[in-house]
Amino acid sequence: MENETAVKNRVVVVGAGFGGIRAALLLAKYDMQVTLIDKYNYHLFQPLLYQVATAGLSVDDIAYPIRAIFRNKKNVDFRLAEVTGVDFDNKSIQMNTGTIDYDYLVIAAGGMTNYFGMQSVQKNSFGMKTLDESVVIRNHILYMFELAAHEKDADKRRALLTFVIVGGGPTGVESAGALAELIYYVLVNEYHNLNFKEVRIMLVEASDKLLAAMPESLREATVETLIRKHVEVRMCVQVTDYDGERLTLKGGEIIPTYTVVWAAGARAIDLIDKLDVEQASMRRAVVNENLQLPNRPEVFVIGDSAHFMQDERPLPMVAPVAMQQADVAAKNVRNLLRGKELKKFVYKDVGNMATIGRNAAVVHMGNIKIKGFVAWAIWSFVHILRLINFRNRAVVFSKWMWDYLVYERVVRLITRK
Ligand SMILES: Cc1cc2nc3c(=O)[nH]c(=O)nc-3n(C[C@H](O)[C@H](O)[C@H](O)COP(=O)(O)OP(=O)(O)OC[C@H]3O[C@@H](n4cnc5c(N)ncnc54)[C@H](O)[C@@H]3O)c2cc1C
User: What are the tens digits of pLDDT across the range 359-399?
Assistant: First the structure.
């Protein structure tokens, strides 16, 4: 047991993602003693992971050291540790480095890739949830081109050049668009021996819709744009097995490929499974209207780890939900401390957007539906603004401008095979 002082306003925040960082910043303002725990020492901007995977951005463009974020907050202590359990009765957190006690706890540990129990797919496909995973994908894609460039066997070469992305949500759509641009704008000029007609990019979706949360006109525009970018869009198609070389679809079709990127689902992080909490859709922890665990008023769960019903539907696992919940959870911690009435959480939908590449995006906000260049400009502006730090914003902006003007992807480095 670590030596903790007997102050009454100790709040521990687990997870330094979108929700955790925002909650910790607010709690610091309220003069609480905040301990922020994360298994990584950086905050990650996950919506741009696919750009690292497709050689557009570097790892340090979308991540930022947590200690730097709290440089001027003397009442925030950071612990680099993995939380392994929580003893709610004794208000104590178990980490791989020891234990720590709390008066209040905010769990903002996010989510993880959901393979829906398909072991072979989990073992052999690529997930895209962490920085490491996106670098692995980048290395792998570039390496496939190196192998294909000198492969004499036509069948093997075609399998090396077949890239399948599973999941027609924003991550799948954005990844497919970005991969098409990497291949058909950049690599096509550099692999002189390859016939690019042998390249195949497939986007596979189990339902009959891409970007299901978007209105029909924007969904149709998305499919048209992807097809124009040489992406084969396959809807109503379910993956059943993948052995690393052969992808099997329901109905028996087999696609020979060495690259399957799994962007088909998310679930709450497995830490939630280890806690004594009620779980609902996507294994998320059920919280009440104030974001507390039932019967544990001092424990709040927010973001991708939390299951919150609104309008009879669970809220989606997206960054705005985590950030809005962080505001309410932090305020409720302060309200509890002061004996005031708690605030109820109500999510304000900020809309949806996705880019399909250069000059192409779809944006849906309230009654506004925009596509094409204007949507792409809005998407770019919003994503630059949402990066946590000025340095990251400036670097990402300049890299995007450079790539836009000279059709380049500067991070085409194979750092590990
Ligand atoms: C590829 C990708 C693209 C996405 N694109 C979009 C998008 O365009 N728009 C959008 O709104 N949302 C997008 N999302 C979803 C969005 O990133 C999440 O909804 C959001 O990050 C949730 O915030 P959070 O605070 O709940 O969790 P996270 O931001 O995931 O943060 C959780 C933190 O907890 C830490 N952690 C986890 N377990 C432990 C543990 N046991 N011990 C210590 N620390 C732990 C993690 O390291 C992480 O830092 C995307 C997600 C992915 C993966």
Answer: 999 999 999 999 999 999 999 999 999 998 888 999 999 99
Write down the pTM of the prediction: 0.95
Other Cβ atoms within 10 Å of 369 Cβ, number: 17
Question: What is the pLDDT, as a whole number, of residue 4?
Answer: 46
The closest-lying atom of ligand 1 relative to the alpha carbon of residue 302 is 26
CA of 60 to the centre of ligand 1 (A): 17
Share of the chain above pLDDT 90, in %: 94
DSSP string, 56-85: SS-GGGSEEEHHHHTTT-TTEEEEE--EEE
User: Which atom of ligand 1 lies at the shortest distance from residue 129's CA?
Assistant: 53
Instruction: Please check whether residue 322 is in contact with residue 268, taking contact to mean a CB–CB distance below 8 angstroms.
Output: no
Distances (CA, A) of 363 to 59, 175, 219, 355: 26, 17, 11, 9
Q: What is the CA radius of gyration of the chain?
A: 22
Strand, coil or helix: 416: coil
Q: How far is the CA of 149 from the centre of ligand 1 (A)?
A: 37
Q: 2, 4, 133, 174: which is the annotated catalytic residue?
A: 174
Across the strands, what pairs with 80? 38
Residue 174 appears among annotated catalytic residues: yes
Three-state secondary structure call for residue 45: coil
Amino acid sitting at position 360: A
DSSP 122-164: HHHSEE-SSHHHHHHHHHHHHHHHHHHHT---HHHHHHHTEEE
Name the β-bridge partners of 370.
363
